[in-house]
Amino acid sequence: MAKLLATGGRPLTGRVRAGGRKNSAVAVLPAALLADGVTVIENLPDIQDVWVYAELLRSLGVKVDLGPSGNGEALRAVVDPGGLTPHSLSEALVKRMRASYYLIGVLLARYGRAEVPFPGGCDIGSRPIDQHIKGFRALGADVRVEKGVVKVRASKLVGAPVYLDVVSVGATVNIMLAATLAEGTTVIENAAKEPHIVDLANFLNAAGAKVKGAGTDVIKVTGVKRLPGGTLHSIIPDEIEAATFMVGAAATGGEVIVENVIPKHLEAVSAKLIETGATVEENGDYILVRGNGRPRPVTVKTLPYPGFPTDAQQQMTALLSVASGTSVITETVHEGRFKHADELRRMGCNITVEGRTAIVQGVERLTGAKVKATDLRAGAALVLAGLMAEGETEISGVEHIDRGYEKVVEKFTSIGADLRRVE
Ligand code: EPZ
Questions:
Q1: Peptide bond between residue 306 and the one before it cis (omega within 30 degrees of 0)
Q2: Domain of 153?
Q3: In this model, does residue 297 exceed pLDDT 90?
Q4: Cβ distance 168 to 131 under 8 Å?
Q5: Is 349 labeled as catalytic in the residue annotation?
Q6: Staple 94 to which of 100, 165, 201, 325, CB 3.0 to 4.6 Å?
Q7: Which atom of ligand 1 is nearest to the CA of 305?
Q8: Are residues 161 and 305 in the same domain?
């Protein structure tokens, strides 16, 4: 199995480009199956989840040409659902990533039926799908979960109001997908407002759908008969990948310019980094972050967008582990998202986890150790900790990192990190 070797002590400096947003890519790829014709998707990140999704679509008879696009940085997909046949999905592929469950909304919309094994995904909490099921039932579908498979049937989908009991990105996406071709209007209340919800809505509208209100907590989808196809869509930048480099700059006392970002999507992260004493300058489509010595302790509370993103919480924990005082981190989105604390403790961090709260008492310095990535963003946090620590850190579980970070070694070494992949 591959491992990453990180040696700390060098400030991250230079310019690095954020790739396409993982969580938008894994929503727009299945959404392309709603169209009869071909869809071209650009600025896809070169990450495992995108390659696996392409395999998943091919297993349904969809033609997917996936490869480097013109500018050499990102991937481009040409999706032709002409041969789509809704037979059962490959369980092995579905288990590899949570976002495979978006195919339920798509197959339900197109064929009135779907059978998808219960999704896998990062081990960061229970991650139920009751709100997805609530939405499908509201649209008139019969939903059963049998032997670990979600089975949905509907002779016809009819638009309806759905009030989400909890702000859920996944449920918002899945209900939007199912509602696109339903008869009549669906209103999703208490909807998620993440930038990739807006990106998906922009794609659907460009493809001929009628989605209003994305980015607010009320999204209205007026069903249409069909989506002709022929749409070209470019995925928005990945603000979580960007946040990871920003936190890294602050944590190593460096100065990094992250290019190809939408600063507005990073306001909560920028504000929090400024609170720790870092310098953050926003300009057009790049953000500059400079570390100014030992970070100050802060309070972090993760919330749905536009609050502080849960997907940047673990990276922030690494930074605060060397702060000049005690920080309090509350994870309100995923109840099990502190597994990285055990690993960070091996590097000298002083973290106490009580339920959804972590108390982080800053220490003078971290020391390198053998650690294991338990999920995607925990892996990112361990890379940052390894670049902060004295000596060498060996990180296993790299497959988690490769799911969501494209060219992680190349990108970090391009800004001065001493980071290597060893088989
Ligand atoms: C998406 O997961 C992201 N994954 C996650 O990113 C991200 O952490 C999360 O949204 C929050 O932003 C993808 O987009 C593929 P939720 P999702 O439904 O959709 C509860 C990463 O690192 N809930 O918004 O699964 C749930 O338990 C990954 O890129 C229900 O109770 O998240 C959680 O506590 C990790 N019932 C909360 O809502 C449901 O039916 C938010 O979950 C659905 C969710």
A1: yes
A2: 22-234
A3: yes
A4: yes
A5: no
A6: 100
A7: 12
A8: no
